Amino acid sequence: DAGVIQSPRHEVTEMGQEVTLRCKPISGHNSLFWYRQTMMRGLELLIYFNNNVPIDDSGMPEDRFSAKMPNASFSTLKIQPSEPRDSAVYFCASSLNLAGTGELFFGEGSRLTVL
Amino acid sequence: RKEVEQDPGPFNVPEGATVAFNCTYSNSASQSFFWYRQDCRKEPKLLMSVYSSGNEDGRFTAQLNRASQYISLLIRDSKLSDSATYLCVVNRSGGFKTIFGAGTRLFVKA
Description:
The complex is a heterodimer. Chain A has no helices and eleven strands. Chain A has strands spanning 5-7, 10-13, 19-24, 31-38, 42-50, 53-56, 65-71, 74-79, 88-95, 105-106, 110-114. In chain A, the strands form two sheets. In chain A, strands 2, 4, 5, 6, 9, 10 and 11 form a seven-stranded mixed beta sheet that branches. Chain B is mostly beta strands. The mean pLDDT of chain B is 92. At the A-B interface, strand 4 and strand 5 of A face strand 4, strand 5, strand 9 and strand 10 of B.
């Protein structure tokens, strides 16, 4: 079975450019999470969805960040405009979340470098 | 103060050693607890859930102390392949919000 699929795996862009990261969760999973990981701050939860509905976006750092989940099989995280401090690995994870006991399955991550 | 706190390490231990990691959480309404493992430049993966009564999976033992709000992981007979970062994970009450600690790095040497 396919796991969580993220694209692109690597992105190098210049400050001010728009960045779109994509995620396909595991089929049948009802929760989707976007995390950002840096050496300094570890894994930070940016936003999570349940049944395609955003539940909590309090971790989104600024208005430059936005996330959507138009259907159960696709989500995007957009940064516009990007800044060097956005450089990080962005992970998408999905789970079959029943009463909060679901294991999170992570994609391989999208490594973003903003110059 | 971070919601989930861990000693970042690194812990450097010889093969065969026993090593223990602790983690504290600040939200008393936290509901579920886990340990994840992350290898260098890879994604995190579930190592084990942590139950109130404590649980064991082979060489790994997890404990939860709700009164003191800490979680522990004990690794016995360390192997070279145990070298990784161990992440303490807490689910908020209500179940959806999953918070990761910054991780504890373990190096097992021959």
